[in-house]
Amino acid sequence: MATNISRRDFLKGIAAGAVSVGAVGALQTIAGPATAFADDAAVTPEEAIKVFDKIPQAYLNPQLDGAEFRTADMELKTLFSPFKIGNVELNHRMVKSAAGSAAYLAGMTDEFLSYYFNLAKGGVELIFVESVSWLEVPESGEYDADTLAYIKKLVDGCAEYGAVLGYQISGFGMGENEMTVDDIHAKQARMIQVAEGLYNVGFKVIEFNCAGFNMPAHFLSRFHNTREDEYGGKSIENRARFVTEILEQLRKDCPDMPIQCLIDCIEENDNITNNPTIMTLDTDVTTPHTKSLSIEEGIAAAKLFEAAGCSSMHLRIGPLGHHVAQFAADLYFILNGIEGATGFGTQYDFTRHFQGKAIGNTSGCGIALDIAAMYKKELNIPVGAVTYMDPAHAPDFFEKALEDGKLDFFLMNRPLTVDMEYVNKLREGRLDEIAPCTRCLHCHSGSNEMNAMFCYCRVNALTQRVMREGGPATYELPPAETKKKVMVIGGGPAGMEAARIAAQRGHDVTLYEKRGSLGFMLDFANMVKGPHENLADLKKYLVRQLEISGVTVKTGTEVTKELIDSEAPDAVILAVGGLRDTLTVNGDVPVIEMDDFMFTEMGENVIVYGSNAQAFDAALWLTVHKKHVTMITPNKADDLDIQQSQHAKRMMTTALYALGFNAYPESSIKSVKDGVATVTLETGLDTQIPCDAIVNAADMLPNTALLDGISVKETYSIGDCAAPFNIALAIRGGNDAGRAV
After folding, report:
1. Sign of dihedral through CA atoms 250, 251, 257, 263?
2. Are 364 and 331 in contact, with CB atoms under 8 Å apart?
3. Predicted local confidence at residue 621, as pLDDT
4. Minimal CA–CA distance to 327: which of 170, 482, 484, 197?
5. pTM over cut 0.85
6. 34-52 tens-digit pLDDT
7. How many angstroms from the chain centroid is the CA of residue 307?
8. Which residue has the higher pLDDT, 272 or 266?
9. Whether 598 contacts 514, CB under 8 Å
10. Closest CA to 452 of 78, 36, 112, 13
């Protein structure tokens, strides 16, 4: 018997994450409708199959619905139980990994101190600091007085909150095959000197980064290491020797020093082109797919490290060519409908790649847990793993992993930097107050000093901005000198952030939203992007913050100048979003607005007009739903998808191009007739492109007219209504306005 469902039911299901539709069980989950229905029109399963049919790539790595692995019914007893790394005793199983310090290379600043003090204050008990050259003992063996005083301040300040510091030694650099044995011994001696120097000034745990593109990892790798001597690639003992000799010497010199080793617990070849300029500096390597580190090799190396004096293991998966995916492998799931995209235009099958042992159905959450369990079974030292280990995201999932003995602790970075009170809030059961990481990777959009210039967190407006030009002066919120009546207009991320910050400072804040509920654009973005970026969680967090902060919320209220005058606020913060120009096309083609593209029937060949993040998200969604998509934009090539992080952009563009998508920058639609568009390219020449419909995803325009002529003197315009860009800058603008009012 056929079951009918309405468009309203579809949308309700989408908001929840997936819809099950009787006879459409083979589809497993449904991302969103691609045809137009009246609100209560009946849709049969047979029609649904046609509506939701997708490209084969969409079915390769089916994902669990959040309700299947994001439950929160268990008491987190194991998570908040003690364990030890060497002689360091900790009261819970969450450790701050070393990633992130590269953003703070400006030197011995108050910002650096505040960053680590806040992590300690928030409940993190072991905090690893990433390699920072000025923290390391000079080759002379003596720190200068200023550096010693600064390190003491750093160590003692964290200790006040019950935290100890670890330090990660990376030994970054390649050229392992060209080194003489004397060169190797000199490098080992320097790493030993750095470790002992840091340990002697108060760092309690030393970690050696033997993963990624670091020299210890290259020695360990059959892919990179082509030496023929005792440090060469012919045996696991030889390949591990560079590290084991360091461990053995440190164990003699500092027998009580806890030492952790970070390794790629499994490798996989992601660039099957064998392009040596991308994969390696060794141009004679032609068969990389045969030389990836297996789990069994990794365990053998870990056993050698344990025997040499290693106190604990830190595990991550290791694609050979894509560095960011080595520590943020959840990036493989950022594309809604092409989960497993590698960044090279190919796609992993998680039932086969990574020896079939990586968890491939939880959107990257805890991807290495089952591999860690294999190491844990063979080792006698604590085992931890990294890559979106986020117990607040899926409490039972992570608690059970600990309870089942798969591993001993979680290495975490992004969740802790998004909300530095993460551990304390989780311990107190305040799950709904934890700001979620949206896994956009904006926080790693540069390298070294460049991070400080253009990296930022989408959710935490303070990260990498505090105490810098144009950023807040402090992490702390200064109380309002005078309590003001503040009107915030617009219930998107910018408006909600502004309202909560202003209210927390002591102002009387009312937020107005013309729609019936808050966060409309976050809802829409979540429908297009899918659940990976946790945008539904972000909305819930911001709404909850308004409740906690005492903000009065009035939905279903469209604000006019007359309403502003009648309310007579002391300050107005405008956050109504941007405007999109009407797209006029010469011809007979339907032009579909962004808000409607998922719900509008259209032909096979679609032009997306625009090249911002929304345009690319729409292009991906349409491509996944078997449309042939071409992007036409007046913008330059360098501006394609500029609103997303460089890592999200890489995944998006390589996957789309591999599926036949093309983008034409600095181009315009001249006319459309009989299903063919004439497009003028940047060369000035015309080309013909099949076109059955156009989706208008042009760049948004400012929208501040409501502030014109009002009697309120203190006004702010923020987010897309002021300078349309992305969610991150909208929240940043809201935070700044809330602090300024």
Report:
1. positive
2. yes
3. 98
4. 170
5. yes
6. 333 334 444 444 444 444 5
7. 36
8. 266
9. no
10. 112
